[in-house]
Design goal:
This protein is α/β, with parallel strands linked by helices. The chain contains 7 helices and 8 strands; from the N terminus they run H-E-H-H-E-E-H-E-H-E-E-H-E-E-H. The strands form 3 sheets. A 4-stranded mixed beta sheet has the order 1-4-3-2. A two-stranded antiparallel sheet has the order 5-8. Strand 3, helix 4 and strand 4 (115-121) form a beta-alpha-beta unit.
């Protein structure tokens, strides 16, 4: 578990607000959920604001992130972070939230800030259901040692990109884009070029 913990801790928090790949939700099997949450929060707490974690774009976005955290339901808890460091700039603390439910705002909406929720699941079917049960679908990550499970997840996930045991890598030869409310069309690759063309059916 140490490598996935470090990868996830470095994934959601140091990114600037404009980088949409930053994961906002982690789904963890309930057998390891508590141990993972503790280790993940400890790694997130080590991130250095201004070094590992950049600022948000403006004061309005900083206020939006803080307001979202202020609206957390009573049963949800901030495991680490949740405030602002004592320094100038639009810096929120890297924040890990647990105890959330699938229909709640912090789960369903894009935060565009260094906030990540951690939710347990019981089995593969529940994990895929939770993963797809949002209106966004840009990217997903699957961490598993089971090749068949990874292939099933790739087919089942409603996202434009799926990474398996890695995070954030793209190549220009492959299309880049989301589904559902995460956008229409693609850039990169031939798929991206075709969006700038118009098909014409000619019959002589």
């Amino acid at each position: 578990m140490p490598c996935p913990v470090r990868e996830r801790a470095r994934g959601p928090t140091p990114r600037p607000v404009g980088l949409r790949y930053s994961p906002g939700r982690l789904l963890v099997h309930r057998r390891i959920h508590d141990a993972f949450l503790s280790a993940f929060a400890a790694e997130a707490a080590k991130l250095r604001t201004g070094v590992d974690c950049g600022p948000l774009n403006n004061a309005a976005q900083l206020a939006s992130v803080q307001a979202l955290l202020d609206r957390l339901p009573p049963h949800a808890g901030i495991v680490t972070g949740g405030g602002r460091p004592p320094r100038p700039g639009f810096f929120p603390e890297p924040t890990v939230v647990a105890g959330v439910r699938r229909d709640e705002e912090v789960v369903q909406e894009e935060t565009f800030g260094p906030v990540v929720t951690v939710q347990p699941f019981a089995d593969e079917a529940e994990a895929l259901h939770l993963a797809n049960d949002v209106r966004f679908g840009l990217a997903a990550r699957v961490w598993t040692t089971d090749h068949d499970r990874a292939m099933r997840a790739i087919r089942a996930l409603h996202t434009g990109i799926v990474w398996v045991n890695t995070h954030g890598t793209t190549v220009s030869e492959m299309p880049h884009g989301g589904v559902k409310h995460s956008g229409y069309g693609s850039d990169l690759s031939l798929s991206g070029l075709l969006d700038y063309t118009r098909a014409k059916h000619v019959m002589l």
